[in-house]
Amino acid sequence: MHSPDIESTVSALRELLGERLSTGASVLAIHGRDEAYTPPALPDAVAFPESTREVSEIVKICAAHHCPVIPFGVGTSLEGHVIPIHGGISIDTSRMKRVLDVNEQDLDAVVQPGVTRTQLNEELRATGLMFTVDPGADATIGGMAATRASGTNTVRYGAMRENVLALEVVLPDGEIIETGTRARKSAAGYDLTHLFIGSEGTLGIITELTVRLFGQPETIQAATCAFETVEGAVDAVILAIQTGIPLARVELLDEVQMKGLNIKNPDMQLPEKPHLFLEFHGSEASAQEQVEMFKSISDELGGSEFQWATKAEDRNRLWKARHDAYYAAKALRPGCEGFVTDCCVPISNLAECIARTKKAIAASGLIAPIVGHVGDGNFHLVILIEPDNAEELRRANQLAESINQLALELGGTVTGEHGVGVGKKHYRQAEHGGGYTLMATIKRAIDPNNIMNPGKLVSLN
Amino acid sequence: MHSPDIESTVSALRELLGERLSTGASVLAIHGRDEAYTPPALPDAVAFPESTREVSEIVKICAAHHCPVIPFGVGTSLEGHVIPIHGGISIDTSRMKRVLDVNEQDLDAVVQPGVTRTQLNEELRATGLMFTVDPGADATIGGMAATRASGTNTVRYGAMRENVLALEVVLPDGEIIETGTRARKSAAGYDLTHLFIGSEGTLGIITELTVRLFGQPETIQAATCAFETVEGAVDAVILAIQTGIPLARVELLDEVQMKGLNIKNPDMQLPEKPHLFLEFHGSEASAQEQVEMFKSISDELGGSEFQWATKAEDRNRLWKARHDAYYAAKALRPGCEGFVTDCCVPISNLAECIARTKKAIAASGLIAPIVGHVGDGNFHLVILIEPDNAEELRRANQLAESINQLALELGGTVTGEHGVGVGKKHYRQAEHGGGYTLMATIKRAIDPNNIMNPGKLVSLN
Questions:
Q1: A6 touches chain B (CB under 8 A)
Q2: What H or E segment, with its residue span, contains residue B28?
Q3: Cα(B63)–Cα(B446) distance, integer angstroms
Q4: Cα–Cα distance between B92 and B80 in angstroms, integer?
Q5: Distance from C-alpha of B143 to C-alpha of B85, rounded to nearest angstrom
């Protein structure tokens, strides 16, 4: 990496953007961290472009001065993706937040990268359509694509991987390209769209996205169901999926997480046992049939205490409680912070992976509730540690390490949805082997000066 | 491209493979063509490896002598992908056809690249699971991944793009890498799996695949439904998808195709009007509900003459008639050959695209029935021309050209599922623009000596 000429970069960018280039301390601080436990690092300046053309001009200026470029959505990532570890210019897409087009017949929408998922769904409300990827946080669609996000209803509707049809991207030399079309499929050429999905800003900046939409279901039924063991809950989900029940959501919360949930939600008070939180979508008859099929499976596998959330307000409360799992976890050890990790394994290995994870948690002496997108074999751990307690941080890192190694051993991946960022860099060789070398070859070819989010997903020498 | 040393290559390969390296005239001829109208070209030799290790050794030998390598499945491609236009070694995967693993709980299977889709489904039969991608031809799974194939039930179950979880690939230097895992999703690193899906053998050779499986539906209902106009049929499908009816198959056959189908299937005799061929999967109640919902939509939009294929044998006859569309088309002009093309547009533009296609067909003076995977916006044209009639071939090329240009104009792609191969090379710049330059950058980085299927999807200088 050539050493960047920051001063010239900032000066040229100020000429381009005026007030929309900021070097104010609080703005730098906001763009120097995310929601992870990664140590922060400040950008040299933050640019607020309003158009693809401006993003392209910014990148051209940065390229000319070998200055790092770090794309920024709203900073909800969990592995330090947006942290400018080598300084440079943070490109904040918050002023590019227009929904450009909604094609109701084609079930797609064209959006700018700074549109958040709830904003998009608000704008879609009158159409009867919905954007389904839901990572919990109100992330930007651009950030979600860049990190290959998924979430609670990926089991039914897919992750960003399945829900992006086309992209507009600014490459590391400032060129603007389009990948894909609004056609549902294509066999024409390399799949550049998927190359950028999950590239974490290391190959270019996404400036426009065409995303898939789905019709809002006629009926939604939600329920919670307690099991005596995690195995029982996982087996019920495996059988339900094999049977073809199109579960819209199926979340696993272990007994520790349930304890936190009860503290945080005094009006819920569910049994402190492993739970599935379920949602069924369909016509009234179809949703009802799914419910009955699932009930007969869960009865067989020791499920009990089905509690229904039939009214929309109860359902919202249920899913809010699930989405607020992080805060519920923190209620288990007030004053502590959550150190988060995730991994994903083939579902047949999920119960074993969780059982061994629980042993590792016990050995660590820490409290760490488990929440999982069980239909995908993906689970999260919120490890509770005291702020500024170096010893607990060390133990949390060790625990996360052992769980990620376990995921690899069980045929899985070190991250189902949180991404690589800074926190998962050291697993690249172990997970990808020769594939990592190929990733580096691609990175080097597309970004030879290594200006795009340097030091993250792929490290160049 | 360095000029290859064929003699040394063949001699080294013979030492490695013995009888499993062939230079026999009939073997070369089989590997010098596919099912397309592309002029054939012979390989210098055909290798029949039996393991990944052997593929790697073959590629290393070819790499050392700058000799082209052309992966070959069963030769059912339709755009000349497997034709060795620069000579070289055709690597035939037909001896790598073992199903290595079926994971019933995870709904996946690990297969060698030479396994065909019907072979896989035969081997799955006892499990109650199925592999769903169905391009009509009994292609190999390796070839289907390499060409990003799809087919009649992609509308419900996805294309190869959605149905491959992981790959093992031999790179152009002979190195063996793995991409992806059996976990259902991952946010770890560039999506190498999707980079190889659709790369048409230009970046490496796929030597192992992990594919998704689905449970066989409890109930299957199939039917044909006639419409007065193509627009009516397309509108019915749009509305059905918006309503959330999970159509398992929905095929459009125009009135010309129906005429051929009636000639070819004297026992069917359906009205010579645009038709939808439909299939519904689900529990008995759910399939029935889908049928009723679709009926009410089609009634509203001028659909009529629903004919049901309730028994398995009737259903098989129906789909055989659909899959044999090529032969039915040929029945319209006995003695002629079919020049095939496909394109794909956003479904909202499909009726217009087909209407304008029909005008272009009329202007060409040729007969060309239309069959489409209407739920995906994808349709095929079989242009009937006399063998060795240069003037008709010229008009067929011109017609295909105008339809592919039309697809681009209407926001689509020049190929929904047949791929680029040789036949669609000249659209690369028009469809991808700067994206094509990026594809060339990637190709150059991964295959700097341009030995992998040279002169196809990406041309290097």
A1: no
A2: helix B25-30
A3: 13
A4: 15
A5: 18
Residues forming beta bridges with residue A370, ordered by sequence position: A381
State chain A's mean pLDDT as an integer.
Answer: 95
* Alpha helix ranges (H) inside A181-254: 192-196, 230-243
How far apart CA B193 and CA B167 sit, in angstroms, is 6
Q: If you search the block for the tokens 């329920």, which residue do you land on?
A: A223
Q: Flag whether pLDDT at A263 surpasses 60.
A: yes
> Tokens in use for B401?
């050209």
Chain B residues within 8 A of A162 when measuring between CB atoms: 158, 162
Q: Is B388 exposed, middle or buried (0-12, 13-18, 19+ CB in 10 A)?
A: exposed
ipTM of the assembly? 0.97
Interchain contact, B177 vs A433, CB within 8 Å: yes
DSSP B116: B
B377 touches chain A (CB under 8 A): yes
Q: Where are the beta strands (DSSP E) in A233-321?
A: 249-253, 275-282, 304-309
Tell which B residues from 185 to 204 touch A, by Cβ distance under 8 Å.
Answer: 185-192, 194-195, 197-199, 203
**B387 at interface of A, judged by CB pairs closer than 8 A:** no
Mutate to test the interface with B, among A190, A350, A431 (most CBs of B within 10 A): A190
Percentage of chain A lying above the pLDDT 70 cut: 99
Contact B148 A191 (CB under 8 A): yes
- Give the CA count within 13 Å in the CB-facing half-sphere of A43: 36
In degrees, rounded to 5, the angle at the alpha carbon of residue B411 between the alpha carbons of residues B409 and B413 is 90
Partner residue opposite B187 with nearest CB, options A178, A419, A441: A419
Are the Cβ atoms of A195 and B198 closer than 8 angstroms?
A: no
B161 CB within 8 Å of a chain A CB: yes
Q: In chain B, what percentage of residues exceed pLDDT 70? A: 99
Are A437 and B445 in contact, with CB atoms under 8 Å apart?
Answer: no
Point out which residues pair with B221 in neighbouring strands. B280
The predicted-structure confidence for B27-82, as pLDDT tens digits, reads as follows: 999 999 998 888 999 999 999 999 999 999 999 999 999 999 999 999 999 999 99
Identify all chain A residues contacting B81, using CB atoms and an 8 Å cutoff: none
The CA distance from B145 to B17, in Å, is 26
Q: Which residues pair with A209 in a beta bridge?
A: A111, A167
H helices of A31-159, in order, are 52-64, 117-124, 141-146, 154-157
Among candidate residues B181, B177, B180, B200, the one with its CA nearest the CA of residue B190: B180
